[in-house]
Write a structure and sequence with these properties.
- The structure is a single chain.
- The protein is an alpha/beta fold and 595 residues long.
- It has 17 helices and 32 strands.
- The strands form 6 sheets. Strands 20, 21, 22, 23, 24, 25, 26, 27, 28 and 32 form a 10-stranded mixed sheet that branches. The chain has a 7-stranded mixed sheet with strand order 3-2-7-16-17-18-19, with no helix packed on it. A 5-stranded parallel sheet has the order 8-9-10-11-12.
- Helix 5 runs parallel beside helix 7.
- The longest helix has 18 residues.
- The protein starts with 14 loop residues before the first helix and ends with a strand.
């Protein structure tokens, strides 16, 4: 990758730094910073005690009795607050928040998140290796510690979809040689790993050979399949589907990245963990995907911890999962614990229910105070990310399926999540198949310039009746142009609005654009502020409520972005057709029979 990165955690082993810290700990030299009057949460014992903390550079030099030392260049009064290690998000995608890494860092650091593990496979799927290189450079200059992972599934289901790039084992191995890359990102092609597919076996083996993490995506795996997935070398999962699934995967020995993006499951997870009577050391926390309005209003990993506590988890457990357990998972003994000799990543929370951060310290420097950034955040030039939507404008007929005859039997994709095959009979009118009654349409057009861009159309069942259309270039994980709708005219209108904007999202109804969110960087993010992006995304949500009736927990707006995730079991519409990873087949046209 030829990228120079900070050599963490070895930067703390500088002899001069250690010598200064030792002298300060003995009392023979002053601290650079002394935090007094606060209470310390010990993430090993779970106990809270009064303690003062002395820092030297990026090191914690001393954790000692209150008011026993006052010799320091700078003294910070932490009275009334609780000190914890900086929070660690063990699995996330910056791109899901639709803002740049610099804007993301400015959002989460003031809330106490000092480290994130970023899988940039969204940029990788659009721009290839150049996208990952851009992500590394963007992260390198930020005060937020970003541990990047090498995308393992670009595309997520080879042969079933076409992305903007193709990462084989040689490309993954090249990424892993960078010190900025901490391991192999979520291995989503579960079937390929389980079946011993040479491509996926080589990718996983590249991770094992590097000695770095090999992270997983094990949705729905049980029994022999789960054993095979883990035997290949995959060691974590965040794709939990139920409390029983959590229990099974804990028992199997996976590290769990308990994610906040599926809130409807969190209370069940808390009940399972409370039933154990202790927090397993393999439980960590992650956000996975946080939309811009959620990030702006509620935060990142701090919000996950807050909700877990609200659902009945002990605050000490939530914080241990988000700090010490996470650090152990990452093999980062410098993080996750407030103790002499560790890295000076600290948060001063007002309380352990709302988790409001009064002060955030990263590498021994105050980076945020009272919810506002103090450290400089340096954005990277975004010019390499523009012009990623390589599609001409589309017509109404691009969203119709031509056929000769009077009636047709068609394949349908049933249910928004945990999809299954279905069938329906419908009319053929004016040379086109009429969408089945009560259903909706989905179309996916390849937008990366690697193949033709004609949309592949399919029919959805269980998505309700659509009174308009929605188009998005945020479409996991190949991020092709995806359009949902109830009529071809609105689908073409929404699609052309997004194409003209260079990527993003648009909602159309009755021949009018109801809302649009331009995302001209990779078709995924924008240079706009988080506040403005959150507002525009909220407008999209509101407009979507006018054209389709949601039915939680599965028929929800969020489901639109995962409807093309072909690595998951069941049929999924892609730019190649209706793909099924279990059979490995692609149905290019949903028409099964004409009569």
């Amino acid at each position: 990758m030829n990228v120079i990165a900070r050599q963490e955690p070895f930067d703390l082993n500088d002899p001069a730094l250690r010598a200064r810290a030792v002298a300060a700990a003995r009392g023979d030299a002053p601290f650079d910073m002394l935090i007094t009057g606060g209470r310390l949460l010990d993430t090993v014992t779970g106990l809270i005690r009064e303690a003062d903390i002395g820092l030297v550079g990026a090191l914690i030099a001393s954790v000692h009795a209150p008011a026993s030392r006052m010799d320091a260049v700078e003294i910070i009064d932490a009275t009334g607050g609780i000190l914890t290690p900086g929070l660690i998000d063990t699995h996330m995608h910056v791109e899901s928040s639709m803002v740049t890494p610099a804007e993301y860092a400015s959002a989460v650091l003031p809330r106490g998140v000092t480290t994130v593990v970023w899988d940039p496979h969204e940029f990788g799927n659009v721009h290839g290796l150049d996208g990952v290189r851009w992500a590394i450079e963007a992260a390198r200059a930020l005060p937020l510690r970003m541990i990047l992972l090498a995308p393992s599934c670009v595309p997520s289901a080879p042969g079933l979809e076409l992305a903007g790039a193709d990462f084989d084992a040689a490309v993954v191995a090249e990424m892993l040689r960078s010190p900025a890359v901490g391991g192999v990102a979520e291995v989503m092609n579960m079937r390929g790993v389980i079946d011993g597919d040479p491509r996926m076996s080589a990718i996983v083996n590249s991770g094992l050979a590097s000695g770095k993490l090999v992270c997983g995506h094990a949705r729905g795996l049980t029994g022999a399949d789960l054993n095979a997935f883990m035997a290949a070398g995959v060691t974590s999962d965040h794709e939990l589907t139920s409390g029983a699934d959590l229990s099974a995967k804990l028992s199997a020995g996976l590290t769990i990245e308990l994610r906040g993006s599926h809130d409807h499951l969190l209370q069940e997870f808390v009940e399972v963990l409370n039933g154990l009577g202790h927090l397993p050391p393999t439980i960590t926390l992650c956000t996975d995907d946080v939309f811009p309005d959620e990030l702006y209003q509620s935060g990142g990993l701090d919000d996950v911890a807050r909700r877990l506590v609200r659902y009945g988890m002990k605050p000490e457990w939530a914080l241990r999962a988000a700090t010490f357990n996470a650090a152990e998972r990452l093999k980062r003994s410098d993080l996750g614990l407030v103790a002499s000799g560790r890295r000076a990543d600290l948060v001063l929370f007002e309380d352990l229910t709302e988790f409001r951060a009064r002060l955030v310290i990263s590498d021994g420097r105050v980076v945020a105070r009272n919810g506002s950034m103090e450290a400089t955040v340096q954005p990277l030039d975004t010019a390499p990310l523009i012009k990623s939507v390589k599609l001409p404008l589309l017509t109404d007929d691009d969203f119709r399926i031509p056929a000769k005859g009077k009636r047709a039997r068609v394949a349908t994709i049933d249910r928004p999540r945990f999809t299954q095959w279905g069938e329906a009979e419908t009319d053929i009118r004016d040379g086109f198949v009429v969408p089945p009654v009560g259903g909706a349409m989905i179309a996916v057009a390849h937008r990366h310039g690697k193949a033709g861009g004609n949309p592949r159309n399919g029919f959805l069942s269980g998505w309700g009746e659509w009174r308009g259309a929605f188009c998005t270039t945020v479409s996991h994980d190949s991020h092709n142009l995806t359009v949902f709708g109830g009529n071809a005219a609105d689908m073409a209108l929404a699609a052309n609005a997004v194409i003209t904007a260079g990527g993003g999202m648009a909602v159309a109804k009755d021949g009018q654009i109801e809302a649009i969110l331009p995302l001209p960087l990779s078709g995924l993010v924008t240079d706009a502020s988080l506040k403005d992006t959150a507002s525009a995304f909220a407008d999209i949500r509101k407009a979507m409520g006018k054209i389709v009736d949601w039915k939680p927990p599965y028929r929800v707006f969020k489901a639109c972005f995962g409807a093309t995730l072909a690595c998951n079991a069941g049929p999924h519409q892609t730019d190649r057709g209706i793909a099924d990873v279990v059979t490995g087949k692609v149905l290019e046209d949903p028409v099964l029979e004409i009569f």
